[in-house]
Amino acid sequence: MSNDTQLPIELQKLGETRFATLYPEQQIQQQFVRLLALSDFAWRSLSSQPSLLSWLLCEVEINNREISDPFATLNINEVEEQQCHQLLRQYREKYWLKVAFLDLCCENSIADSIKYISELANKLIDSANQWAYNNVAKTNGEPLDEDKNALPLMVLGMGKLGGQELNYSSDIDFIFAYPRNVKTQGGRRSLEASVFYTKVAQKLITALNQCTVDGQVFRVDMRLRPFGESGPLVMSFNAIEDYYQEQGRDWERYAMLKGRLIGTPSRYWQEFNTLLRPFVYRRYIDFSVIESLRKMKLMIAQEVRRKRLTNNIKLGAGGIREVEFIVQALQMVRGGREANLQTQSLLTALEQLTFSQVIDEHEARGLKNNYLYLRMVEQYLQIFDDQQTQTLPDDELNQQRLNVLLKQGNFDSAIEKIEQVMAQIHNEFIQVIGEETVPLDTCEGAFISAWDHGDVSFLKDEREEWQTPLHDFKQRLSKAKVGNRGRDILDKLMPALLKQLNDFNATASAFTTVCQILNKIISRTAYLELLYENPGTLKQLVLLCCHSKWIGEHISLYPILLDELIDPAVLYKPTPLTAYKDEIRQYFLRIEHDDLEQQMEALRQFKQTHQLRIAAADATGVIDVMKVSDHLTALAEAIVDQAVNIAWYHCVKRFGMPPNTDDEHKGFAVIAYGKTGGFEVGYDSDLDLVFVHNHDGTSYTCGDKAIDSRQFYLKLAQRLMHLFNTRTASGILYELDTRLRPEGASGLLAINLESFNHYQQTQAWTWEHQALVRARLILGQTELVTRFAQIRAEILCQKRDVELLKTDVIKMREKMREHLAKGNTQQFDLKQDVGGMADIEFITQYLVLKYAHEFNHLCDNSDNVRILTDAAKIGCITDTQKQQLIKAYIDYRSRYHVLSLDQQGRCVKREDFSKDINNVTAVWKAIFELD
Prior knowledge:
This protein is of the alpha/beta class and about 950 residues long. It contains 39 helices and 14 strands. Strands 2, 3, 5, 6 and 7 form a five-stranded mixed β-sheet that branches.
């Protein structure tokens, strides 16, 4: 069926110009004018293969849905890699052009189009898999079962591919598996099964994913596999079963519901499906699924706000994802008992839910029609330029195109129709899944009056100190660009906020801090709604601002952190110390390797989120000061680890790898000094780092743009500095200070570890050996860890001239105090004044440098408390001195943390710490033998 809807003048001209350019000798054909006007992809495809015009004119072909083989006329064993890639890409371009013609010019049903594209994709993937298997088997033989039958690589398609609901420009998600751990037979050399199938999988991915002159077949995403990016590319049946039984998470159950094997069925298909079924479908009616999916939907809503997505027909409220949640929730609740619901297809599942009377027939019909309408809109958006998008266009050309296809007179009408559909879906979603939010109760009249009139005298309790921040906020609001919807929400939110502030007996300072946050989000209705519709979130915001000015400032700088306040169970429970590295790896699974900008934002958002959780637990007394520093240090180490992985990937992509390295053995290490080395990172600490490696200038990287290994590691270090110090929309990551490296600011940014050793042995000053006391290697392969420990021990255990050491340490301390101390006769600088933290640190370093040659284990630790404990055990200081120093150090750090959280500097009343000051001063005099 053709579509004869008249095109607007601009589109008609565009189509005619393109047609005349491609076919100057032919008479204008309106169908193809329409196609060329509505799709830039069709224009590019016909430009590269003009002969496809006559193929599209064939009515038999247009009505044909049989799936041909890309290698139909060839012996697959003789197809070379370049030819394989070309054939697959030309096949894809040809048939995707046909689908574009069907959808844009023939009003083909969207259900037929997505099914057809899915079947075409199945054939492309299966053909690529067969070619990859045969290509690897040529030289390596193939794994055989007990009956001498070949054991295939099993390709599990996930997501829309698995559900046979592929959209026009979908990514495709795979999980690879193989049936048996048997070696290959019949080749020049025998390979372990895991090695063989990994080679096949790599060739399959390259055949589909690689961009060539002919384009790309599909973008391939492997992050849904067990253990994500850190997991093996392929796994045996047994390993996959163990993983999902022992470690499978709720989101993996949800994802696996769509899992479908692709290719030619074999006897192993049933075995594979049987081992996965118990993980996806419980034998009992499983209502726990609803809560899990509600939380997943909440996470998606947070991500929409985080990325500032608007007009997104997939992820927004009432979008495609909500239909999927509705259907799949009901499948997972009942699918264990009702086998007819165990299907990957959403539309089939919807039919079966109706058949089983789980969903009313009328509701199911409405849900199906609305789902297909949004899928049709999505299809059009992607056909325009073969781009994966679900966002309604903001440019006039594509808005006109969408108007034509939706048969709307203007874009406002198109938006209105789409919003009607999404509203109906969202209503159904709320009925099935529910919402995480609970609207606020109506506030007492006094708080409403106080807000309406801007006058705190309406309140029963005397709150005169609130008048200034309230007045200032209303003044700023009067000048702010806030829409009607935003003002309506504020009028409901502010009385609730005043009530919360009153309940917590908040100070004017806390009120001002909350207002600073509101000023930052005043034009972002989504965040105002978040606070209004989630009373618990508003309560946590007020509570934390009352406890800590730093937290309020932190949230005002990064409003996306408001999402973290939704669940107090998570907010006040920092990640376990050993889990930060795993959590950041999981966090990065959703980010493309090549998207450096997004990676930099993600690093900063991860830090901000976890710093908030630590600060929340700190401010409310959930964890003590020592644990706070442990958490902030572990967080910093995890971020350094992830940043090194990012920098490594980009440097390797450009220059190749240095010899004898891989992703796990980079030949690169990071030494942490100061607070990071001593497990004492604070909220606003910079990181004192030194970069070392184990290569010299005589070796070269293996890439097309090969450079010597020493240059490679310099570039790696420079990339790290860029990742950390660049100011993005989310600020800098950490201030990286590398001046403690050999030769300071004039030295190489990354240095060979043996050169580092030589410098420490022959050129380093006493203060540099003092710094080494608090140094430890926080990232690097085992041999580098071991070698650094040897070097550090050798330096610290040297026998020194005690008088010279004493003089150097005292001089350096006096110099620091002269330049940095901020105290006076009444105020005490916790860090730099006499008797403060720096004195304790210098005492600790002096003890190590003086006695480690005799007592080697004094240099086992890098933190002050453990070193002082060790020093007392061997008699370098008395037990009383140890207790006094440790008590003072913890007292100072505890107050310093409190002051940091309230942004009050580091000076306190001397009288509050007179005993600690006197004790530390006395120990200093005793140790340095001063009068």
